[in-house]
Amino acid sequence: MLNTQNLTPKQLSAFTAVVIASAVAIGIYFLTSSWKYGIGAMLTVFAGAYFLIQFTLEKFIYRKIKLIYKFIHQTKATRKEEVYFKYILPKKSIDEVREDVERWGNRQTEEIELLRKNEAFRKEFLQNLSHEFKTPIFAIQGYVDTLLNGAMDDPKVSTRFLENAERNVERLVNLVNDLDEISKLERGEQLLLKQNFIIQDLIREVFESLSINMQDKNLRTGIKKGCEYPILVFADKEKIRMVLLNLVENASKYGKFNGSITASVYTTDGKHVLVEITDDGIGIEGEHLQRIFERFYRTDSARSRDKGGTGLGLAICKHIIEAHGQAIHVRSTPDVGTSLGFTLESRKD
Protein backbone atom coordinates (compact mmCIF):
# COMPACT_ATOMS: atom_id res chain seq x y z
CA MET A 1 0.00 0.00 0.00
CA LEU A 2 1.25 3.47 -0.93
CA ASN A 3 2.57 5.46 2.01
CA THR A 4 1.23 9.01 1.53
CA GLN A 5 2.98 10.40 4.59
CA ASN A 6 6.38 10.83 2.91
CA LEU A 7 5.25 12.02 -0.52
CA THR A 8 6.80 15.12 -2.06
CA PRO A 9 4.41 17.88 -3.26
CA LYS A 10 4.67 16.68 -6.89
CA GLN A 11 4.04 13.07 -5.90
CA LEU A 12 1.10 14.12 -3.75
CA SER A 13 -0.32 16.21 -6.63
CA ALA A 14 0.05 13.30 -9.07
CA PHE A 15 -1.47 10.79 -6.64
CA THR A 16 -4.48 13.03 -5.93
CA ALA A 17 -4.93 13.84 -9.66
CA VAL A 18 -4.89 10.11 -10.52
CA VAL A 19 -7.60 9.38 -7.93
CA ILE A 20 -9.82 12.23 -9.20
CA ALA A 21 -9.20 11.43 -12.91
CA SER A 22 -9.90 7.72 -12.35
CA ALA A 23 -13.19 8.46 -10.61
CA VAL A 24 -14.26 10.83 -13.43
CA ALA A 25 -13.20 8.34 -16.15
CA ILE A 26 -15.17 5.52 -14.53
CA GLY A 27 -18.25 7.77 -14.29
CA ILE A 28 -18.03 8.82 -17.96
CA TYR A 29 -17.50 5.22 -19.07
CA PHE A 30 -20.70 4.12 -17.31
CA LEU A 31 -22.61 7.07 -18.84
CA THR A 32 -21.33 6.70 -22.42
CA SER A 33 -20.21 3.06 -22.52
CA SER A 34 -17.18 4.31 -24.46
CA TRP A 35 -13.69 3.62 -23.18
CA LYS A 36 -12.27 6.27 -25.55
CA TYR A 37 -14.30 9.02 -23.87
CA GLY A 38 -13.31 7.61 -20.51
CA ILE A 39 -9.59 7.65 -21.30
CA GLY A 40 -9.81 11.12 -22.83
CA ALA A 41 -11.64 12.46 -19.82
CA MET A 42 -9.14 10.78 -17.52
CA LEU A 43 -6.13 12.38 -19.26
CA THR A 44 -7.78 15.80 -19.37
CA VAL A 45 -8.88 15.72 -15.74
CA PHE A 46 -5.52 14.33 -14.62
CA ALA A 47 -3.59 17.15 -16.34
CA GLY A 48 -5.92 19.85 -15.03
CA ALA A 49 -6.11 18.42 -11.50
CA TYR A 50 -2.32 17.87 -11.30
CA PHE A 51 -1.39 21.42 -12.23
CA LEU A 52 -4.18 22.91 -10.11
CA ILE A 53 -3.19 20.91 -7.02
CA GLN A 54 0.53 21.59 -7.60
CA PHE A 55 -0.19 25.32 -7.96
CA THR A 56 -2.31 25.30 -4.78
CA LEU A 57 0.37 23.51 -2.76
CA GLU A 58 3.09 25.83 -4.02
CA LYS A 59 1.07 29.04 -3.76
CA PHE A 60 -0.79 28.64 -0.50
CA ILE A 61 1.06 26.01 1.51
CA TYR A 62 4.77 25.85 0.70
CA ARG A 63 5.10 29.62 0.44
CA LYS A 64 3.80 29.79 4.00
CA ILE A 65 6.24 27.06 5.00
CA LYS A 66 9.11 29.03 3.41
CA LEU A 67 8.09 32.04 5.49
CA ILE A 68 8.19 29.85 8.60
CA TYR A 69 11.71 28.70 7.70
CA LYS A 70 12.82 32.29 7.11
CA PHE A 71 11.36 33.23 10.48
CA ILE A 72 13.25 30.34 12.08
CA HIS A 73 16.55 31.57 10.62
CA GLN A 74 15.67 35.16 11.65
CA THR A 75 18.16 36.65 9.19
CA LYS A 76 18.22 37.61 5.55
CA ALA A 77 18.64 34.41 3.59
CA THR A 78 22.11 33.67 2.30
CA ARG A 79 22.63 32.35 -1.21
CA LYS A 80 22.94 28.86 0.22
CA GLU A 81 19.64 29.26 2.11
CA GLU A 82 17.91 30.62 -1.00
CA VAL A 83 18.97 27.47 -2.88
CA TYR A 84 17.64 25.43 0.03
CA PHE A 85 14.26 27.23 -0.02
CA LYS A 86 13.94 26.92 -3.80
CA TYR A 87 15.12 23.38 -4.53
CA ILE A 88 15.46 21.30 -1.36
CA LEU A 89 12.55 22.45 0.81
CA PRO A 90 9.80 21.75 -1.79
CA LYS A 91 11.00 18.13 -1.96
CA LYS A 92 10.35 17.65 1.74
CA SER A 93 7.14 16.11 2.97
CA ILE A 94 4.89 17.93 5.42
CA ASP A 95 5.99 15.47 8.14
CA GLU A 96 9.66 16.27 7.49
CA VAL A 97 8.89 19.98 7.68
CA ARG A 98 7.00 19.38 10.95
CA GLU A 99 10.03 17.54 12.36
CA ASP A 100 12.29 20.46 11.39
CA VAL A 101 9.98 22.93 13.11
CA GLU A 102 9.71 20.71 16.20
CA ARG A 103 13.51 20.50 16.42
CA TRP A 104 13.72 24.27 16.14
CA GLY A 105 11.04 24.61 18.82
CA ASN A 106 12.96 22.28 21.15
CA ARG A 107 16.15 24.29 20.63
CA GLN A 108 14.29 27.50 21.41
CA THR A 109 12.83 25.95 24.56
CA GLU A 110 16.31 24.85 25.70
CA GLU A 111 17.72 28.33 25.03
CA ILE A 112 14.87 29.98 26.93
CA GLU A 113 15.40 27.61 29.87
CA LEU A 114 19.13 28.41 29.83
CA LEU A 115 18.37 32.13 29.81
CA ARG A 116 16.03 31.69 32.77
CA LYS A 117 18.69 29.79 34.71
CA ASN A 118 21.28 32.45 33.87
CA GLU A 119 18.88 35.18 34.96
CA ALA A 120 18.21 33.37 38.24
CA PHE A 121 21.96 32.91 38.73
CA ARG A 122 22.57 36.60 37.99
CA LYS A 123 19.95 37.70 40.51
CA GLU A 124 21.32 35.34 43.15
CA PHE A 125 24.88 36.52 42.44
CA LEU A 126 23.93 40.20 42.76
CA GLN A 127 22.01 39.49 45.96
CA ASN A 128 24.98 37.63 47.45
CA LEU A 129 27.42 40.29 46.26
CA SER A 130 25.31 43.01 47.87
CA HIS A 131 25.17 41.05 51.13
CA GLU A 132 28.92 40.40 51.14
CA PHE A 133 29.65 44.11 50.69
CA LYS A 134 26.99 45.38 53.08
CA THR A 135 28.13 43.31 56.05
CA PRO A 136 31.63 44.84 56.43
CA ILE A 137 30.51 48.30 55.26
CA PHE A 138 27.77 48.52 57.91
CA ALA A 139 30.19 47.21 60.53
CA ILE A 140 32.75 49.89 59.62
CA GLN A 141 30.04 52.54 59.61
CA GLY A 142 28.91 51.46 63.08
CA TYR A 143 32.41 51.60 64.54
CA VAL A 144 33.14 55.01 62.96
CA ASP A 145 29.83 56.49 64.15
CA THR A 146 30.46 55.22 67.68
CA LEU A 147 33.95 56.73 67.68
CA LEU A 148 32.69 60.08 66.38
CA ASN A 149 29.99 60.14 69.06
CA GLY A 150 32.52 60.11 71.91
CA ALA A 151 34.13 56.68 72.03
CA MET A 152 37.45 58.19 70.87
CA ASP A 153 37.86 59.66 74.35
CA ASP A 154 38.38 56.15 75.74
CA PRO A 155 41.72 54.84 74.36
CA LYS A 156 40.88 51.15 74.98
CA VAL A 157 37.48 51.36 73.29
CA SER A 158 38.79 53.41 70.37
CA THR A 159 41.68 50.99 69.81
CA ARG A 160 39.36 47.97 69.83
CA PHE A 161 36.87 49.63 67.45
CA LEU A 162 39.64 50.71 65.06
CA GLU A 163 41.05 47.19 65.05
CA ASN A 164 37.58 45.80 64.25
CA ALA A 165 37.12 48.40 61.52
CA GLU A 166 40.53 47.47 60.09
CA ARG A 167 39.52 43.79 59.92
CA ASN A 168 36.38 44.68 58.00
CA VAL A 169 38.35 46.92 55.64
CA GLU A 170 40.72 44.00 55.04
CA ARG A 171 37.71 41.80 54.30
CA LEU A 172 36.50 44.33 51.72
CA VAL A 173 39.94 44.50 50.13
CA ASN A 174 40.11 40.69 49.92
CA LEU A 175 36.64 40.59 48.39
CA VAL A 176 37.54 43.15 45.72
CA ASN A 177 40.83 41.37 44.98
CA ASP A 178 39.07 38.01 44.62
CA LEU A 179 36.43 39.50 42.32
CA ASP A 180 39.17 41.10 40.24
CA GLU A 181 41.01 37.77 40.08
CA ILE A 182 37.90 35.94 38.85
CA SER A 183 37.13 38.66 36.28
CA LYS A 184 40.65 38.44 34.85
CA LEU A 185 40.47 34.65 34.70
CA GLU A 186 37.09 34.73 32.95
CA ARG A 187 38.36 37.26 30.40
CA GLY A 188 41.51 35.24 29.81
CA GLU A 189 43.73 38.11 30.92
CA GLN A 190 45.70 36.05 33.41
CA LEU A 191 48.73 34.67 31.60
CA LEU A 192 49.90 31.27 32.77
CA LEU A 193 53.64 30.98 33.34
CA LYS A 194 53.97 27.22 33.10
CA GLN A 195 57.00 25.35 34.31
CA ASN A 196 57.98 21.93 35.55
CA PHE A 197 57.96 21.55 39.33
CA ILE A 198 57.53 18.82 41.93
CA ILE A 199 53.94 18.98 43.16
CA GLN A 200 54.70 17.33 46.52
CA ASP A 201 57.21 20.08 47.36
CA LEU A 202 54.56 22.74 46.71
CA ILE A 203 52.03 20.86 48.86
CA ARG A 204 54.51 20.73 51.75
CA GLU A 205 55.15 24.49 51.39
CA VAL A 206 51.38 25.16 51.59
CA PHE A 207 51.00 22.91 54.65
CA GLU A 208 53.88 24.74 56.34
CA SER A 209 52.51 28.22 55.55
CA LEU A 210 49.11 27.33 57.04
CA SER A 211 50.38 25.33 60.01
CA ILE A 212 49.72 28.18 62.48
CA ASN A 213 46.05 28.32 61.41
CA MET A 214 45.65 24.62 62.19
CA GLN A 215 47.04 24.67 65.71
CA ASP A 216 43.70 25.60 67.32
CA LYS A 217 42.15 22.36 66.03
CA ASN A 218 45.34 20.33 66.38
CA LEU A 219 45.05 19.22 62.75
CA ARG A 220 47.61 16.84 61.32
CA THR A 221 48.80 17.31 57.73
CA GLY A 222 50.77 15.10 55.41
CA ILE A 223 51.08 13.34 52.09
CA LYS A 224 49.39 9.96 51.79
CA LYS A 225 51.63 6.95 52.15
CA GLY A 226 52.68 5.73 48.74
CA CYS A 227 52.31 9.19 47.18
CA GLU A 228 55.60 10.64 48.44
CA TYR A 229 57.64 9.79 45.32
CA PRO A 230 58.38 13.14 43.55
CA ILE A 231 56.10 13.79 40.57
CA LEU A 232 56.76 16.62 38.14
CA VAL A 233 53.82 18.60 36.77
CA PHE A 234 53.72 21.31 34.08
CA ALA A 235 51.68 24.27 35.32
CA ASP A 236 51.77 27.82 36.66
CA LYS A 237 53.32 27.21 40.07
CA GLU A 238 51.97 30.35 41.77
CA LYS A 239 48.45 29.79 40.45
CA ILE A 240 48.48 26.19 41.67
CA ARG A 241 49.83 27.45 45.01
CA MET A 242 46.70 29.64 45.21
CA VAL A 243 44.50 26.62 44.47
CA LEU A 244 46.19 24.50 47.15
CA LEU A 245 46.01 27.33 49.70
CA ASN A 246 42.25 27.63 49.14
CA LEU A 247 41.65 23.88 49.34
CA VAL A 248 43.75 23.40 52.47
CA GLU A 249 42.20 26.47 54.15
CA ASN A 250 38.73 25.07 53.45
CA ALA A 251 39.78 21.69 54.85
CA SER A 252 41.08 23.34 58.02
CA LYS A 253 37.94 25.47 58.49
CA TYR A 254 35.57 22.51 58.25
CA GLY A 255 37.85 19.82 59.63
CA LYS A 256 37.16 18.28 63.02
CA PHE A 257 39.29 18.77 66.14
CA ASN A 258 42.30 16.43 66.23
CA GLY A 259 41.52 15.56 62.62
CA SER A 260 43.77 15.27 59.60
CA ILE A 261 44.28 16.78 56.16
CA THR A 262 45.91 14.47 53.64
CA ALA A 263 47.24 15.15 50.15
CA SER A 264 47.29 12.44 47.50
CA VAL A 265 49.15 12.56 44.17
CA TYR A 266 48.68 10.00 41.39
CA THR A 267 49.88 9.67 37.81
CA THR A 268 46.78 8.72 35.82
CA ASP A 269 47.39 8.03 32.13
CA GLY A 270 51.03 9.08 31.74
CA LYS A 271 49.95 12.53 30.56
CA HIS A 272 48.09 13.80 33.63
CA VAL A 273 48.51 13.94 37.39
CA LEU A 274 45.64 13.84 39.89
CA VAL A 275 46.02 15.88 43.10
CA GLU A 276 43.53 15.49 45.96
CA ILE A 277 43.20 17.25 49.32
CA THR A 278 41.16 15.14 51.76
CA ASP A 279 39.84 15.96 55.24
CA ASP A 280 37.81 14.00 57.79
CA GLY A 281 35.57 16.91 58.75
CA ILE A 282 31.86 17.69 58.61
CA GLY A 283 31.46 16.89 54.90
CA ILE A 284 28.97 18.32 52.42
CA GLU A 285 25.38 17.26 51.74
CA GLY A 286 24.86 15.77 48.27
CA GLU A 287 22.42 18.51 47.23
CA HIS A 288 25.21 21.11 47.49
CA LEU A 289 27.98 19.26 45.66
CA GLN A 290 27.06 20.56 42.19
CA ARG A 291 27.11 24.19 43.33
CA ILE A 292 30.07 24.61 45.65
CA PHE A 293 32.22 26.05 42.85
CA GLU A 294 29.73 28.88 42.22
CA ARG A 295 30.67 32.38 43.35
CA PHE A 296 29.42 33.14 46.89
CA TYR A 297 27.62 29.80 47.17
CA ARG A 298 27.68 28.56 50.77
CA THR A 299 26.28 25.28 52.02
CA ASP A 300 25.39 26.97 55.32
CA SER A 301 25.39 30.76 54.96
CA ALA A 302 25.45 31.69 58.62
CA ARG A 303 28.08 29.14 59.65
CA SER A 304 30.24 29.82 56.59
CA ARG A 305 30.31 33.57 57.15
CA ASP A 306 31.25 33.04 60.79
CA LYS A 307 34.33 31.19 59.56
CA GLY A 308 35.40 34.14 57.40
CA GLY A 309 36.42 34.17 53.77
CA THR A 310 34.86 35.85 50.76
CA GLY A 311 32.96 32.87 49.39
CA LEU A 312 35.00 33.07 46.18
CA GLY A 313 37.84 30.67 46.96
CA LEU A 314 36.50 27.56 45.22
CA ALA A 315 35.24 29.63 42.28
CA ILE A 316 38.79 30.97 41.82
CA CYS A 317 40.16 27.42 42.06
CA LYS A 318 37.78 26.25 39.35
CA HIS A 319 38.75 29.10 37.01
CA ILE A 320 42.47 28.53 37.53
CA ILE A 321 42.24 24.79 36.86
CA GLU A 322 40.03 25.33 33.80
CA ALA A 323 42.49 27.96 32.54
CA HIS A 324 45.04 25.11 32.57
CA GLY A 325 42.63 23.07 30.44
CA GLN A 326 42.01 20.64 33.31
CA ALA A 327 39.12 19.72 35.63
CA ILE A 328 38.34 20.00 39.34
CA HIS A 329 35.95 17.76 41.26
CA VAL A 330 34.58 17.06 44.72
CA ARG A 331 33.61 13.93 46.66
CA SER A 332 32.02 14.20 50.07
CA THR A 333 29.94 12.41 52.69
CA PRO A 334 28.42 14.21 55.70
CA ASP A 335 30.29 13.49 58.95
CA VAL A 336 32.89 11.48 57.02
CA GLY A 337 34.85 14.11 55.14
CA THR A 338 35.53 15.76 51.81
CA SER A 339 38.00 15.23 48.97
CA LEU A 340 38.64 18.05 46.52
CA GLY A 341 40.83 17.12 43.57
CA PHE A 342 42.09 18.46 40.28
CA THR A 343 44.21 17.28 37.38
CA LEU A 344 47.37 18.80 35.91
CA GLU A 345 49.58 18.04 32.94
CA SER A 346 52.58 15.82 33.55
CA ARG A 347 56.07 17.21 33.03
CA LYS A 348 57.08 18.63 29.65
CA ASP A 349 60.54 17.79 28.34
Could you explain the architecture of this structure?
By secondary structure, the protein is of the alpha+beta class. The chain has three domains: 4-92, no CATH class; 104-187, Helix Hairpins; 194-346, Heat Shock Protein 90 (2-Layer Sandwich), CATH 3.30.565. It contains ten helices and seven strands. Strands 1, 2, 3, 4, 5, 6 and 7 form a seven-stranded mixed β-sheet that branches. α1 runs antiparallel to α2 (35-73), α4 (94-148) packs antiparallel against α5 (155-187) and α6 crosses α8. It is elongated. The two termini are 69 Å apart. Mean pLDDT is 79; it is low at 301-305.
Which structural class best describes the helix and strand composition?
alpha+beta
Helix content: 55-70%
Report the CATH architecture of the largest domain. 2-Layer Sandwich
Beta-strand content bin: 5-15%
> CATH H level of the largest domain: which superfamily?
Histidine kinase-like ATPase, C-terminal domain
CATH topology of the largest domain: Heat Shock Protein 90
List the uncertain runs.
301-305
Main pleated-sheet profile: 7 strands, mixed
Shape: elongated
Key terms for this structure?
single chain; 349 residues; alpha+beta; Helix Hairpins; Heat Shock Protein 90; 3 domains; seven-stranded mixed beta sheet; 10 helices; 7 strands; elongated
